[in-house]
Amino acid sequence: MKPVKSPNTSHKSKQIVVIGTSAGGLKALISLISQLPSDFPAPLLIVQHISSDATGDVLMDALNKNGKLCSRHAVQGDIVQAGNIYLAPSDHHLMIEKGGTLLVTKGAQENRYRPAIDPLFRSAAVAFGNRVTGILLTGYLDDGTAGLIAVQRCGGICIVQDPKDADYPDMPANALNQLKVNYCLPIAQMGGVLLNLMQRKLKTQKNIPKDIEIESTIAERVLSDLPSVNSLGEQVPFNCPGCGGVLWRIDKGTLMRYRCHTGHAYTAAALLAEQTKQIEETMWTALRMFEERRNLLTTMSKNLKGGASKSAIERAKQSQVHIERIKAILLADDKVTQSDTPK
């Protein structure tokens, strides 16, 4: 591992860069990080969606091999330093506090992911205000959009990969549909823009919106917080797919979002995708149970006589009808349902 570099600016003037990506992120991050010099004057915090059983070493090793900055897994309690890259560990959210202290937690999933992009962006917006540059790269669905909105509302800079340049354009395109970003660029142009932004004169910091502070605190505490989520919106007649609790609709902004009091959070698209997944899982379970029932009734009919045998055969036939109906639904070419679920 490359040596950790010391900060070359005071915390007061230090800027921070937060980056979020999903599918196609390895290639995109290598391309971006390879453009930055070894004396880049800010820390970079990165969330890439990875499975809970992954180590994250592939990304870390690739960035260390192809870039001039030191890339490492984030560790709870570390203080960020300029010229270093901090990667969210698998199955943990990465956030940052005022003062530059890293938080690495097992909090509730957001947008079906842990690590998720929104908690990082939101915490950086609260901790660093207009000293944040948020970058959203290739990926499915819309994690990161709410986080970018938080960065923008706190005075930070928002950069989104041009969807035409992205291997998976959903995440950048969804962000562009929800807010007017400062830059929409192909990755090849981002390095130069980042270097210029690090030299910009910062304006006086405006107050951090209360709702962004509340959402950031919910994620940081890893605790149930009914009063806090109550202040963000109204209850809706949907259940949280993560814990079965009641959901609240977040009323701020145009992006439709939902939260439960234990910390799970979803955009409307992520909630729909999770509901679709659970419906499919339930139907496969029902299919298995009907097949087992049919098989048992068929076996029983062979050992029964007269009317009892005929009754068992008839019930087995009824089970087969249900089996065929469920199979038809599961195998239907439903383009709407297919698009609900990310690859």
In short:
The chain has about 350 residues and is an alpha/beta fold. Helices cover about 40% and strands about 15% of the residues. This is protein-glutamate methylesterase.
3D architecture notes:
- With 343 residues, the chain is an alpha/beta fold.
- The protein has three domains: 16-197, Methylesterase CheB, C-terminal domain (Rossmann fold); 223-263, no CATH class; 274-340.
- Helix content is 41%, strand content 17%.
- It has eleven helices and 13 strands.
- Strand 10 and strand 11 (246-250) form a beta hairpin.
- The two termini are 33 Å apart.
- Helix 3 packs across helix 7 (210-221) and helix 9 runs antiparallel to helix 10.
- The longest helix is centred in the C-terminal third of the chain and has 36 residues, at 268-303.
- Strands 3-4-2-1-7-8-9 form a seven-stranded parallel β-sheet, sandwiched between helices. Strands 10-11-12-13 form a four-stranded antiparallel β-sheet.
Which overall shape is indicated by the principal axes computed on the Cα atoms? elongated
What is the tally of beta strands? 13
Query: What is the CA-atom radius of gyration, in angstroms?
Result: 24 Å
- Tell me, what is the CATH class of the largest domain? Alpha Beta
Largest sheet: 7 strands, parallel
Please count the helical segments: 11
- Give helix and strand order, one letter per element, not per position: EHEHEEEEHEHEHEHHHEEEEHHH
The domain tally reads: 3
- Please give the share of residues in helix: 40-55%
Please tell me the CATH architecture of the largest domain by its name. Answer: 3-Layer(aba) Sandwich
Poorly predicted segments: 6-13, 335-343
User: What percent strand?
Assistant: 15-25%
The chain-level structural class is alpha/beta
Give the terminus-to-terminus CA distance. 33 Å
Query: What is the third-level CATH name, the topology of the largest domain?
Result: Rossmann fold
pLDDT averaged over residues? 89
Protein name: protein-glutamate methylesterase
GO cellular component, one term: cytoplasm
EC number: 3.1.1.61
Catalytic activity: [protein]-L-glutamate 5-O-methyl ester + H2O = L-glutamyl-[protein] + methanol + H(+)
